[in-house]
C-alpha cells in the first residue's frame, strides 16, 4: 500500500539518536506507511531498532488492514498486531466481518482489539459512520476484547465522556489503553482511577498543547506508553512530516523532559508497562 496521497511529498522524520534503554512503539500503521511487503517491513523495523525501539504494534483499522496486520506480525519477531474496525467505518461491521475479526483477534501475535471507540469529529462534518452505529460497534469490540482476553485499544476523538460511560456500562476489559491520548488532567484522572493506560503520541510534543502537557505530567508512571500513529502525527519539530516507528524515540525524549525524569528510567518504565499491557515478550 502506498503512503496516503497527502503524505506523498512530505519529508520523513529524521532519525533519532538511539535511546539509552529500548522501548516499544505501541501504535503504528505500517501498511499506511507504505511498508506493506516483508522487505519493507523489515527495513522499517531495522530503522526502529537503530533508534532503540525494540518492538512495534501495527494496527488494523478496517477489515483489510486487520488481515494485513495479523499476517505481517508473522514476518518479524519485532512486530505485533491489533485488529478492529475503526469507528468511522462501523457501517462495515456486518456479521461476516465480525466473524473474521473474532478469528483474527485469537491469533497469538495479535495483542489487542483496536483501534475501536468513538469519533465525533468526522460525522459532524458528514463523513464516516453515524454515532449510533459507532456506539454499537464499540460495544461489540469491548465484548470481543473480553472474550479473547486481550487489551482494548481505544480511538477517542472528541468523545471522552461518552467513551467512559460506555466502558462503565458495558464493563471494561481487564486491560484498556487510550490510543493517542488527547484529554486534559480531568480525563487523565478518570483513566487513572480506572487503571486505564494513556498512550501519548506526537501531539504531546507540540509547544502550545498545554492541557495535554499537564495530563502527561499527571499520568501515573505505570499507566503511560508512547506511540507514533505513523505515518500521522509526527512529533515537534517535524510536525507535518511523514512519521515512522523510529520517531517514537523523539516523543519518549520529549515526555521524559516534560515529566522531569531521567530518560533511562523513563524508557525502562515505558517498556515494562507496554510488556504488561500487551503481553509482548520482547518488550521486557
TrEMBL record:
One of its GO terms (molecular function) is metal ion binding. InterPro entries: DNase_TatD-rel_CS, Metal_Hydrolase, TatD-like, TatD/YcfH-like. A divalent metal cation 1 binds at residues 27, 29, 115, 229. Pfam families: TatD_DNase. The keyword Hydrolase applies. A divalent metal cation 2 binds at residues 155, 179. It comes from the Bacteria. The keyword Ribosomal protein does not apply. GO terms for cellular component: cytosol. Keywords: Hydrolase, Metal-binding. This is TatD family hydrolase. The lineage of its organism: Bacteria, Bacillati, Actinomycetota, Actinomycetes, Nakamurellales.
Amino acid at each position: 500500500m502506498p503512503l496516503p496521497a497527502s503524505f506523498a511529498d512530505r519529508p520523513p522524520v529524521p532519525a533519532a539518536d538511539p535511546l539509552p534503554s529500548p522501548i516499544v512503539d505501541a501504535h503504528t500503521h505500517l501498511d499506511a506507511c507504505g511498508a506493506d511487503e516483508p522487505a519493507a517491513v523489515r527495513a522499517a523495523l531495522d530503522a526502529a531498532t537503530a533508534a532503540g525501539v525494540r518492538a512495534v504494534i501495527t494496527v488494523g483499522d478496517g477489515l483489510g488492514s486487520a488481515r494485513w496486520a495479523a499476517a505481517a506480525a508473522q514476518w518479524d519477531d519485532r512486530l505485533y498486531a491489533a485488529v478492529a474496525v475503526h469507528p468511522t467505518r462501523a457501517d462495515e461491521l456486518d456479521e461476516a466481518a465480525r466473524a473474521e475479526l473474532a478469528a483474527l483477534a485469537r491469533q497469538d501475535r495479535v495483542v489487542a482489539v483496536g483501534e475501536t471507540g468513538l469519533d465525533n469529529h468526522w460525522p459532524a462534518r458528514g463523513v464516516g459512520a453515524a454515532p449510533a452505529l459507532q456506539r454499537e460497534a464499540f460495544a461489540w469490540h469491548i465484548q470481543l476484547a473480553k472474550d479473547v482476553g486481550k487489551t482494548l485499544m481505544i480511538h477517542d476523538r472528541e468523545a471522552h465522556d461518552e467513551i467512559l460511560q460506555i466502558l462503565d456500562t458495558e464493563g471494561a476489559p481487564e486491560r484498556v489503553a487510550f490510543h493517542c491520548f488527547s484529554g486534559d488532567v480531568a480525563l487523565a484522572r478518570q483513566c487513572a482511577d480506572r487503571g486505564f493506560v494513556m498512550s501519548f503520541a506526537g501531539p504531546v510534543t507540540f509547544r502550545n498543547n498545554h492541557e495535554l502537557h499537564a495530563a502527561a505530567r499527571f499520568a501515573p508512571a505505570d499507566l503511560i506508553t508512547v506511540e507514533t500513529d505513523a505515518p500521522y502525527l509526527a512529533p515537534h519539530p517535524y510536525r507535518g512530516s511523514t512519521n515512522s516507528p523510529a520517531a517514537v524515540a523523539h516523543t519518549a525524549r520529549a515526555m521524559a523532559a516534560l515529566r522531569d525524569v531521567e530518560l533511562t528510567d523513563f524508557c525502562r518504565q515505558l517498556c515494562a508497562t507496554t510488556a504488561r499491557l500487551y503481553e509482548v515478550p520482547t518488550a521486557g
